[in-house]
Amino acid sequence: MKQEKPILRFINGGAVYIGKGVSTKNHRHHAIQLTISFNKTFEIITPKRTLENCKFVIIPENVPHQFICSSEDYQVFIYLDPFNKLSQLLKNKFALNSNVVLPDNFSPKIPPLKKWLVTEGDELEALVTKFIERIADCTIPYPNKDVRVTESIEYLTNNLDKAIKISEVADFVCLSESRFAHLFKLQVGIPFRRYILWLRIQKTLLSFLTGNSFTEACYDGGFSDSSHFNRTFKEMFGNTPTAILKS
């Protein structure tokens, strides 16, 4: 296994981070977190209890926790917006509240590490979806993609450097605001405003990684300044973008 550098990839309403020997300070974030270790175990410390010898956990949103891994094993961290359809599957299956969940008999359901390392784009989203459907023992019915939703996503992607109102995009695809909001969530699996937030984070990081200054990158993603981006990123992931980008 030659892959050494950490990987951060985005999916609709979420992200996947893959790294070795990750440890964090106590933190919390808005996203639901799933963490997988492939060979060695890790430790999770919460205000209620300490969980040792873990290989797979689900951490509900806004639960304070510290992650400790003393080995150089790979871990996969999946972050899901709490309004994501996949998050709803997990909430229904595991009754997520304020407790970290250790699912039983999960090993056969986890895709091999190599698959996580090489999969990107739509295939990564499909991999995450399939995995969560398997552990939740439930599938999500996906309707055929509506061309108006496809056009709205293209519009959003091309206009992230400015403020975007849902009414503006609804007008663009010739729908009422309420009808568009319903159709968008049905097709994409996450509410319109939450989807824009994930797009802005992704656009900012990609802009920075392609050579722009951090300030320029924040403007490209539609954030008012770097402090605004830092706050948003930390709320979603529980860590600063600097800590992630350092890797």
Describe the structure.
The protein is an alpha+beta fold and 247 residues long. The protein contains 10 helices and 8 strands. The strands form 2 sheets. It has a 5-stranded antiparallel beta sheet. It has a 3-stranded antiparallel beta sheet with strand order 5-4-7, with no helix packed on it. Helix 1 runs parallel beside helix 3 (121-136), helix 5 packs across helix 6 (177-188) and helix 7 runs antiparallel to helix 8 (214-220).
Defining traits:
247 residues, alpha+beta, Jelly Rolls, 2 domains, five-stranded antiparallel beta sheet, 10 helices, 17% strand
Counting DSSP E segments of at least 2 residues, the number of strands comes to 8
- CATH fold title of the largest domain: Jelly Rolls
**Computed Rg:** 18 Å
Main sheet summary: 5 strands, antiparallel
Which CATH class of the largest domain?
Mainly Beta
Summarize the structure.
By secondary structure, the protein is of the alpha+beta class. The protein has two domains: 7-136, Jelly Rolls; 147-246, Arc Repressor Mutant, subunit A. The chain is 43% helix and 17% strand.
Topology, pairings included?
Layout: E1 7-11, E2 14-20, E3 32-37, E4 42-45, E5 50-54, E6 56-59, E7 66-68, E8 74-80, H1 85-94, H2 113-118, H3 121-136, H4 147-158, H5 166-172, H6 177-188, H7 192-209, H8 214-220, H9 226-237, H10 241-246
Antiparallel strand pairs: 1-2, 2-8, 3-6, 3-8, 4-5, 4-7
